[in-house]
Design brief:
3-stranded mixed sheet, 2 domains, Spore Coat Polysaccharide Biosynthesis Protein SpsA, Chain A, 7-stranded mixed sheet, 364 residues, alpha/beta
Amino acid sequence: MPQLFSDDPSCFSPSSGSSSKNMACKVRGDMGKLLPVISFFLGAALTAAFVIATLDVNWRLSALASWNDGAQPAVTDEMKALAELTEVLRNASMEDGTVIMTSINRAYAAPGSLLDLFLESFRLGEGTEPLLKHVLIVAVDPAALVRCRQVHRHCYLLRRPEDAVDYSDEKHFMSKDYLDMMWGRNLFQQTILQLGFNFLFTDIDIMWFRNPLRHIAITSDIAIANDYYNGDPESLRNRPNGGFLYVRAANRTVDFYRRWRDARRRFPPGTNEQYILERTQAELSRRAGVRMQFLDTANCGGFCQLSRDMGRVCTLHANCCTGLANKVHDLAGVLRDWRNYTAAPPAARRRGGFGWTRPGKCIR
């Protein structure tokens, strides 16, 4: 049975075997025609069955297409889940098919926690509130979904097997559960690309003050923020941070993601996806044929390399900071500083002198 979403690199080769396999590997365009059933015309009825399988403690989306002697397709829970995901992506997407996406668990979604700060930043930012209609919040547990639906329009529950790890509580940096969650996120992002949507993934601990999309070149396949920026947007020696990541849907970017995960085998167990990207990004981009752009921390920065010019900052990430309480404390201070800045007369803002409050729990 040919796979619709396959880890077989031949899906992305023009020399792939059968025409039905090529069609299955290249599904794009009108997503309304993709679900619930994909029809192929080869003289017999083709049944489409979509299966959500488990990879480690996260799930992946896989779609299987098979001949079935003219039988009608069975509508499964997995098929419904894929249809639901496609529908929420379509509802949240911009005209060019781009979705702003973040993820939350119960701890991050609690009142007064990171979700509230994240949404508030859009409302306080300059021209960012209209972007909220394009933000899809992915909940990794039912309690987070309930809270999301109370405060936001576009929410999606990432379903997992009953025996999977509980992601509802805070996961400490570099713990096994944290690493599993990050690699699962990586695979989910690939699925979004395979469904034909561009995405701008943003961690929930990133504050949005201006539209960062204006700093992403139209020629970039991947644009990524950095913990530390060396001044060259094309330098593969930058230190990227996958918490803020734009990816354009294309065969080559899906191939990039597959190679990224495959590279995990070459590193010791317990290595996170960000470190592997930093070490292999030159090789991965060359082999997959993608163009990477590294974003200036003056525009898309964070606590690691703090942007000092509030007149330029678009997003601010609580990176180089561990502990949920520490992040909430310092980001609440960031929002207070932003309010003071935007409340000042234009002449005072032009003179400068505004900055982020120091010291904080993380800001130094």
